[in-house]
Structure formats: structure tokens, C-alpha cells
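input
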Amino acid sequence: MHPEFLWTTAACALVTIALKSSFIEGSRHIHLPRWFREALEFVPPAVLIALVVPGVFKGQSSLEAALGAVAIDPRIVAAAAASAVYWVTQRTMPTLGAGMACLYGAYWLQL
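output
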């Protein structure tokens, strides 16, 4: 590894820690308005949707490139199955397991 890479990575880590800890440590001294604290509750779902939706509905996936094209896009089927499992169980691990099993199963059944 190059020293520039290590210094850049260390600098990025410090900036990330400073930004994240500023909300935690700063909350003792700066009181955010109630409407702002309530709005922060919507950040995790918004970030999750911003990461998941393009992955499900955008272009060719690496799994498709490795195994070949299929008639029905398994990502949409897997996302629907994972959503149904989460709606029923409200637990993360069964949701991830069902989604991955459905994704690979749908590819396998179409090959």
C-alpha cells in the first residue's frame, strides 16, 4: 500500500468520527429543536431506501453477469419475498435469509 492511501484513509476516518461524534457530544451543549429531532427519525429509512431501490431496479447485477441472463428478474422477486417476511416477523435475520434464499433460488430455477 502506498503511504498516500494510508494517510487519506486515516484522514477520512478522523473526519467521519468527528462528524458522527459531533451530534452525540454536541447534544449536551446544543439543544436541537423538537421538530429537528423528530425529523432525524426518518433518516435511517430514507438512507435504506436510497441504497436498496437502485440495487433492485437498476441495470445488470454481478450475479447476473456471473450466471447469465434470466427471463424474470430475481431481484424484484427476492425484494418482495424479503418485504413479506419482514412484515410478518419484524426481524432482520429471517428477512435477510429469505431474501438471499429467494434470490439464489430464483436464479437457480431459471437456469
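quick obs: The chain has six helices and no strands.
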